[in-house]
Amino acid sequence: MTAVTTQPPRMDDACSTTADASSTRRWVALAAVLLATFMGLLDASVVTVSVPSIQQDLHASFGEVQFVSAGYTLAYAVGLVTGGRLGDRYGRRRMFLVGVVLFVLASVACAAAPSASVLIATRVAQGLAAAVMLPQVLSIVQHAFTGPARATALGLYGATIGVATIAGQIVGGALLSWNPLDLGWRSAFVVNVPIGAVALVVASRTVPESRGARARLDLPGAGLLALALVALLLPPVLDQGWPTVAAGLAAAVVLLTVFVRVERRQGNPLIPMRLLTQRSVLRGLLTVLAFYAGNAGFFLLLAYHLQSGLGRSPLSSGLIFAPLGIAFAVASLTGRRFGALGTGTILMAIGLAGVLVVVPTVPQGAQVTWLLPVLTLVGAGQGLVAAPLIGTVLAGVDPADAGAASGVLLTATQTANAAGVALIGGLFARALGNAPGSPGVSFTTYTHATALTTAAALALTLATGLLVRNR
């Protein structure tokens, strides 16, 4: 009999296997946290396409349905920096999982809301849950990935933003048309339950725990920042006129000034002032404000123009958004090849200028055909800007400040979204001379209002272009 000897595995083979497993695990973890990101952003865009149905079913005013959208983003913006700090202190994985659970529970409460006031309250709760859940995502990415892998992960994050935003239009329209279990618009919130469950199970098994400085939470700073954001964003949403908006802006400036002074004296401030002294962070945040305010306002006015102006169904309206979303996703993943930021703002400007030409000149029956190519240009431009813009803001940030930096970035994003919906939505309503969705408003009036507010979105795009050019 011939003896058979078995060679033990070489050490380098064992290390390679362990490294491969670790690499696979972090990409699966990324998929889980991006699924939660998809859920949070899907929820906002599903509601955008569902707003006309909510308004009709709950007999709500335009101001109330505006707050259904803006209340979520307002609460989200108010809580984001604190949510990021909670992740730094108590663990980003732990707070992410807590946020997912709270978000799903709030979604169920939204689906059961019997009135506009209850829906607004549950949407605010949902926004606060998102503020716990979503700032952990960028912190987890910053901790788990470096170099080219981080750039790829951020590209996937940017693509998720685009896919979720447009998928919300399509999913919302499909759910309203299909009307499962006769739920109507309520199904737009029920859909979060299975998505959240999958994200929770996968993330609990794959996302590694990480922390920043375990210092006491800056409650005075959190309170001052929350009050400043409410003063800034609430008056436009309530639509009580420009004097009220100006008073809110003045109050916000005072509160932010006090906030900065308090933070400078804190041993562990909510927002480390060193972040705001970094040129890339400060200019990136200004760019984020212009970019996302224009996008959010444009999506809202376009949904109303398609459904109330052109008489399209929610599903048809959502499908018209699809080329924009597909172009956004593709551009987010491939944008590094094209000098993304500058090229992106040019494409956005050309696309929005195309909308400005099409809406007032093309007959009602032919508008969709002409809108599709220019909306594709808008989406491609947005995708080229979104992913590298995130990297611009976070470049050079110390890992210990990852939670705070992520919170600041997402706060700026959601502040811009809420401001865009409130200000451009308010301008749209004034141009109509009536609440959007009201019967009896002519197609000609809708084309005038859509053109005017698209011009406002174009102005914000041009501002974005100037900021990225001079960075």
UniProtKB/TrEMBL annotation:
The chain crosses the membrane at residues 27-47, 67-84, 96-114, 120-141, 153-178, 184-203, 215-234, 240-260, 281-303, 315-333, 340-359, 371-395, 407-429, 449-468. It is a multi-pass membrane protein. It is found in: Cell membrane. Its main location: membrane. InterPro entries: MFS (IPR011701), MFS_dom (IPR020846), MFS_trans_sf (IPR036259). The keyword Transmembrane applies. CDD domains: MFS_MMR_MDR_like. Pfam families: MFS_1. Keywords: Antibiotic resistance, Membrane, Transmembrane, Transmembrane helix. Residues 29-471 form the Major facilitator superfamily (MFS) profile domain. PANTHER family: ACTINORHODIN TRANSPORTER-RELATED, MAJOR FACILITATOR SUPERFAMILY MULTIDRUG TRANSPORTER MFSC. This is MFS transporter. It comes from Streptomyces macrolidinus.
